[in-house]
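dumping this here before i forget
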Amino acid sequence: MEKEIKSFSTVLDKNMSHLIKRLLVGIFIFSLIVLIIYGIFDYLSYPRGFIVSEGIIRYIDHNSGLWRLEVDKRFLWITVSKAHFGIENLPTEFQNDGLKVRATYHITDVIGTSDWDTFIRITKIERTK
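structure:
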């Protein structure tokens, strides 16, 4: 009788370790799928080439000061977050914090991983209401 109990507990231990391994593998695969989907989403939501966006001019008083364009980051017509781009060549008549504009630009430099580290060169800019 005691031998049957030991063999039953041994089988139970093997099944539990097998279930834990399967659970860990499942969690790993799920995490990998989530990371891949996030990467695809981020790639598709990031603009390429010449971009036309409506946004707000912002002045950031950091170091020597920097003009930024704040635009909505969209995915399938849904606003996901705000993107902030450093402007390399903002004309003086548009250097007004809070000014709403429509700009055509392209990305010139990315020096880090956040939106604050992305710089643009404006090719056309106009005021909007």
